[in-house]
C-alpha cells in the first residue's frame, strides 16, 4: 500500500529538509514543484536567459531549487536559499512560528508574478512598442500577464437583481485561490457541498440591501455568482480555521473529494460553451493537528511515474491512489489539462 523508495531515480520526487518549523513552506514548495507547466516554463533555457537579463531574483531562486528537485540525484535537498529569500521579501515569515500554508502560497504567487513582469517590461522596452501577444497584454487582477496569471488566475461574474424593478447589474472579480467555507453542523461533507454555497443565489435583505441605480431605492436584492473564466489550474482552499464564539478553532469536518472535479454547475452560460469543466487533482496540502500545534504535509502526483507520493519534509513515500483522500485536506490543486511528461533539458 505504501512503501519507502529505496533507489532514488525519480525526477521531481525529492524531499525537503526542515531545519525549523518550516513544514508549511516545504508543503507549498512540493505543490509548486508538481505544477508541470510552471516547471517547464521556469526551466526552459530561453526563460532562464531572460530571467538573468531582467535580474528576476525570485524566479531565479525557484529555478535553482526546481533544478535540484527535478534533476538532482538525492532523496532530499535543503531549500536554504529559497527560505532565506522568503524571509527577506515576506518578513512575517521570518520566525519559527507555525504559519498558514494557504497564505504563503498566495503571497508566493504574487511575488513570483511581480518578479516575472520584469521580463515582459524588458521586452516591451527593447522592442520600443507594446507586445501584441494576447497572453502578455491583458489586464488582470495580478496586473500584467505572466505564466502565473496565465495558469492560476480566473474570474467570477456577479449578477445583482433588484427585486422591485428587476434591474440587473454585472460585475467581475479575479482570483487565484478560491477559499471555500466548510459546513460546521455536520461531521462529513463533499467538496461539492463546499462549492455550492459559494455559488448559490443569495437574497440581500435589511442593512445588506443595495441601492438600485434604476429605481433609486434600497430594496431586497438577489445576488448570483458564476464562474466566468475558470483558471487552467484551480486552487481550492478549505477554510478550516475559524471562530467559535470568541475562540479561534480548527474545523475538523471531513471534506471528501475525488481525483476528478466537475465545475459545470457553477459556470456562466458563456463559460460553459468555451471553458474546461472537468479538472483532475494533482496535489494536496494536509494540515495535521491543532490550530497552534500542527504539521503540514503534501501529497503530489508525479507525471513521470504516474504515482502519488507523500512528502513529510525530507521523508518521502509512495502512496496508493486510494490513500489520497484525507480528513486533513487543507488546499487542493486541480488542473483542467492532463500533465504530460515535462520537457526539461537534461531530464
Give an account of the 3D structure.
This protein is α+β, with helices and mostly antiparallel strands and 347 residues long. It has one domain (12-335): Cysteine proteinases (Cathepsin B, Chain A), CATH 3.90.70. 30% of the residues lie in helices and 30% in strands. It has ten helices and 21 strands. The strands form six sheets. Strands 1, 6, 12, 16, 17, 18, 19, 20 and 21 form a nine-stranded mixed β-sheet that branches. A four-stranded antiparallel β-sheet has the order 5-4-11-8. Helix 1 packs across helix 6 (101-127). The longest helix is centred in the first third of the chain and has 27 residues, at 101-127. The protein is globular, with a radius of gyration of 22 Å. Mean pLDDT is 87; it is low at 1-7 and 127-141.
Amino acid at each position: 500500500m505504501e512503501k519507502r523508495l529505496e533507489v532514488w531515480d525519480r525526477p521531481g520526487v525529492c524531499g525537503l529538509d526542515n531545519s525549523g518549523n518550516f513544514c508549511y513552506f516545504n508543503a507549498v514548495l512540493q505543490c509548486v514543484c508538481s505544477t508541470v507547466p510552471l516547471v517547464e516554463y521556469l526551466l526552459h533555457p530561453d526563460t532562464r536567459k531572460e530571467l538573468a537579463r531582467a535580474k528576476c531574483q525570485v524566479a531565479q531562486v525557484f529555478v535553482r531549487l526546481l533544478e535540484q528537485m527535478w534533476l538532482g540525484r538525492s532523496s532530499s535537498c535543503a531549500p536554504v536559499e529559497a527560505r532565506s529569500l522568503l524571509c527577506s521579501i515576506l518578513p512575517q515569515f521570518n520566525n519559527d512560528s507555525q504559519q498558514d500554508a494557504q497564505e504563503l502560497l498566495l503571497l508566493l504567487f504574487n511575488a513570483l508574478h511581480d518578479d516575472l513582469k520584469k521580463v515582459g517590461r524588458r521586452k516591451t522596452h527593447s522592442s520600443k512598442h507594446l507586445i501584441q501577444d494576447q497572453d502578455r497584454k491583458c489586464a488582470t487582477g495580478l496586473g500584467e500577464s505572466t505564466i502565473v496569471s496565465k495558469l492560476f488566475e480566473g474570474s467570477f461574474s456577479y449578477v445583482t437583481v433588484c427585486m422591485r424593478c428587476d434591474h440587473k447589474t454585472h460585475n467581475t472579480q479575479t482570483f487565484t485561490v478560491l477559499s471555500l467555507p466548510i459546513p460546521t453542523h455536520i461531521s462529513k461533507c463533499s467538496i461539492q457541498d463546499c462549492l455550492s454555497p459559494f455559488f448559490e443565489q443569495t437574497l440581500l435583505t435589511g442593512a445588506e440591501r443595495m441601492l438600485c441605480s434604476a429605481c433609486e431605492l434600497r430594496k431586497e436584492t438577489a445576488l448570483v455568482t458564476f464562474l466566468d473564466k475558470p483558471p487552467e489550474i484551480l486552487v481550492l482552499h478549505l477554510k478550516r480555521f475559524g471562530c467559535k464564539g470568541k475562540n479561534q478553532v480548527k474545523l475538523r469536518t471531513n471534506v471528501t473529494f475525488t481525483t476528478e472535479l466537475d465545475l459545470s454547475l457553477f459556470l456562466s452560460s458563456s463559460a460553459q460553451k468555451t471553458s474546461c469543466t472537468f479538472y483532475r487533482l494533482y496535489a494536496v496540502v494536509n494540515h495535521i493537528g491543532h490550530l497552534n500545534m500542527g504539521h503540514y504535509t503534501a501529497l503530489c502526483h508525479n507525471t513521470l511515474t504516474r504515482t502519488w507520493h507523500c512528502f513529510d519534509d525530507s521523508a518521502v513515500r509512495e502512496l496508493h491512489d486510494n490513500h489520497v483522500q484525507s480528513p486533513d485536506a487543507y488546499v487542493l490543486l486541480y488542473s483542467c489539462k492532463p500533465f504530460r511528461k515535462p520537457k526539461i533539458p537534461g531530464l
